[in-house]
Amino acid sequence: MKVTCLTFNPFQENTYLLHDETKECVVVDPGCYEQHEREQLKKFIEDNSLQVVRLLNTHCHIDHVLGNKFVADTYGVGLEIHPDDEQVLRAVPSYAGNYGFPQYAEQLPASYLKEGEVVKFGKTALQVLFTPGHAPGHVVFYNEPEQTVIGGDVLFQGSIGRTDLPGGDFNTLISSIKTKLFTLPDEVTVYPGHGPETTVGYEKKYNPFLR
Q1: Which residues pair with 190 in a beta bridge?
Q2: Residue 129 — φ and ψ, nearest 5°?
Q3: Phi, then psi, of 136 in degrees rounded to 5
Q4: Is 0.85 surpassed by the pTM of this model?
Q5: How far are the Cα atoms of 34, 62, 97, 124, 160 from residue 102, in angstroms, in the given order?
Q6: How far apart are CA 93 and CA 91, in angstroms?
Q7: CB 133 within 8 A of CB 176
Q8: Would you say residue 179 lies in a domain?
């Protein structure tokens, strides 16, 4: 599995394209809002002859869902989220304008992800891990053979997701990290929703929030 990161919108959100030798592709957390951002995403997909087969959200805060409708409409895929985050998704139109996104277009889920489910595309399988705390329905996607996690806003290099937004809870987030991510091998690479990638081992050793 190849992991391609494109960073979009004023929140500097990491949108991930996951693809393998079959050319099937999954889009995770499309943050593309402006037309030039959408064109950048589309161009990468076209240049690499990828076929988008799934659209996933780790969670549904505004910076991670701005491009959901564009991807769903352009590639004919349904949005997949954890059911506990649907309330977060449905709240976005009420505040999108205040955050500077007056043209936000809502895309509601077509199906739901659950803990332990395996998301398959091409020759690749991603395990869904339920990791609430930053958002009530937050999930991450773990590829065991490649030792990679698409981690959303749970764990960052030297930091953790904020917990002061509706549905957030600090103790729940710490528990999610320790029981779900820190039980994975130290060499697992975590691709977060913002900033550079890190590893489980590095964060166990150096993350000031988790010592």
Answers
A1: 149, 198
A2: -115, 130
A3: -65, -25
A4: yes
A5: 11, 12, 4, 37, 29
A6: 6
A7: yes
A8: yes
